[in-house]
Amino acid sequence: MPKNPPKKTQLSLITHQSQPRVIFWLSLSLIIATSYSLLALKQAFNSPYIVQDDARQHVFWMQRYIDSQLFPNDTIADYFQTVAPVGYKTLYQIIANLGIAPLTLSKLLPLLLTLITTIYAFALTRQLLPLPIAGFISSLLVNQTLWMRDDLVSATPRAFVYPLLLGFWYYLIKRSLIPSLGAIALQGWFYPQSVLISSGLLILQLGKWQRGKLRLSRETKDYYFSAAGLLVAFLVMLPYALTQSDFEPIITATQAKDMPEFWAGGRASFFTDNFWDFWLNGDRSGLLPRRQSLPILLYAALLLPCFGKIPQHFPLTRQIHPSIILLPQILLISLTLFFTAHLLLFHLHLPSRYTEHTLRLLLPIATGIALTILCHGLFQKTQILAIGFATILAGILLFYPLLVPNFPKTAYEIGTAPQLYQFFTHQPKDSLIASLSPETDNLPTFTHRSILVSWEYAIPYHLSYYLPLRQRAINLIRAQYSPDANEIKTFIQNHTIDFWLIDQSAFTPDYISHNKWIQQFPDVATEASLKLEQEIPLALPPLIRQCTLFHTQKFTVLDAKCLERHL
Description:
Strand order of the largest sheet: 6-5-7-9-8
Number of strands: 9
Number of helices: 26
Helix content: 55-70%
Strand content: 5-15%
Radius of gyration: 27 Å
């Protein structure tokens, strides 16, 4: 037997996948994913009043599943219930019927979603490069990438996009028809935009790159597979196309450019005069995920296409499965939809949603494969250098999160006014609260009572929802800072409010200048500031003492009926 087996034999030994080895690396991946999730879970239950930032919009109204009398005639609750995907609503409703509150479920779901995402990331990478260590690196980087953002932890519809995209890509490579169709259906039920990405991939499967030319596939099964997938995509998206929302029309790009809400500092900041920020770095308009939310090792993904050109130095590239073509196909479809979304602004929602989610998965997978190939190539040259590099790499992979501020990023909001929440919780279920306080953002979640307006819920994409809300906010600002008692009385009667929540510092110029919600409406904000600076007597402050129902050092709750009687 020769002392040095041929390279082909060496490669076959290296790529041999014993079941214990696969189980070990997958288990290690799941352990690390669980540890990240448990860190977030610890934060989630660290206070009786804590909620993930975006869950305040998407989960609060689901308390209706437990008590149907909550949020009656509440436009805000109706809006978020209407725009929620059907699968997302159904899941929360089923679990609520089992006795688990929606807010509690939103804190538990990220762990389950993380584990599913990890399994698919590991399995997909192994399909592309048959080495469990590559699957481990990729899944680890996927987890680090996702936990540097607050998407997965939000348990909102976009949290489901990662396992559903990875699942479909995995089944697509394996040509597993039924699971692929199921993945597409779930995408439509939880995050409809991802169906467009999957549909584009199904179309690309009909083309084959042969001898430097793009040709149509000659495999009949490719046409059956794509046709079945596109049919399911069509059927699952058809209800969205046929259903006319009560909150339409969708705002146009021309209309949005005339509104401060869509510029810097606005509730839905989108436009900017900086070309590079708009097209590359914008959170809603840009092509790329924010650099600070990506692990530094992901730049190694750029090495993968380079290795393929020099296989003699990196022989493991010969073990890459031809289905690796899926990665550039995903990138192509994502870019196409990104520019299409810009062209049809805002009818396909936000352009960045078609690239940031896919790149957060593509880059870690490509990096896992690239780093595995690099380590093997170095090992072929010199074992000492390879061992040193592998040691440094392992250290970076495992300990990099310790260098990242606020890892894992959860964006949990902790309620700091428990007495206020308890007061409103004991009020009638049909109560309506008016306030300009930033604390209003938390009231629907922690008190299960309706609010008139709030920054958190001022989503301006559907005009029939936003324009009335905008007008209510303007009316509230004018009433709170009006010297005319009749204006306040008219406001209370027109909006049938029950309580008026006021911050103790509400009648100071600094309060207005530092309140981003009031500053959203520059004309009325300036008008209110001038009244305070000129010390014009306002109608509301003299009535505070006699109409106070609840009072702390920071908040005062006024009885609207009392105000109406004394105005």
